[in-house]
Amino acid sequence: MDGSIARPRPLLALFVRLLAAAALATMGMLVKLAGERGAHLVELIFWRQLTTTILLGAGLALTGRLALLRTERLPAHARRAAAGLFGMIFTYGAVLLLPLAEATTLGFTAPVFATLLAIVLLRERIGPYRWSAVAIGFAGVIVVMQPFGGLHEGVTLAGIAVGLVAPFMVAFISFQIQDLNTTENPWSIVFWFSALTAPVAALALPFVWAPHDLVTWGLILGMGLVGAAAQMLLTTSLRFGSAAVILLMDYTALLWASFYGYTIFDRAPPASLWLGAPLIIGAGLLIAWRERQLARSRVHSGE
Q: Would you kindly state where each structural domain of the chain is located, as residue ranges?
């Protein structure tokens, strides 16, 4: 498979994205388990990024496709890596500070933040549909987290704040990746992100390094492998289907997170999560639908 856009295969794209959602939820579970056993956030980020760099680099080398990593936009990759590293700190931090289901649900607000960023970064005019989606999305956050009442067990205001910065960064990074996609191969984008951030995380390792037992190292290794697989599955899904079509599969991560939370961490999601999550998911789907309608109208008008 070369660096060009693959032939659309929507059913395959949906299946691959379904696997990606499961892998991301599994990675979150492993991050939380490893964190509870003493693994530091910086350690987890380092091993995740190093594993991705090695696996992707080796895979491309073995298949004779290292040329796909050639780039003339290293500064753009570096800016994406800096934002991505910052985003990973908050994404992993949310998993460590919040129950899995709540952290996963907050992550679904990324399309809402992307809409708000489009106003600031792209000077885009937002109509009533997308403004309604923004309002519905944040109403869902309030229903899930109940920040003005009694917080659920394991939920803190700090955790909520970290959990909302994470999807904001995901939304911000999506604009950077969109720009890189105009000239760069998807594998190049993934590789340079991991290759540029792993050394930065390594610089902080001496300050947070701690001895671990074999079980903890197994969790860290598993987290790195599953995280690398998730990254590759996400990239592959976008080669065979549009983001608007496969978005629904991302929300199945909530089912996995709830399952892991109940079976591994002995915590059933509160009733408010099942009331608020549909609002957040509905907001994301409304934004995706409206984006698709606007894209079609631009094509028909010849823009």
A: 11-112+148-264
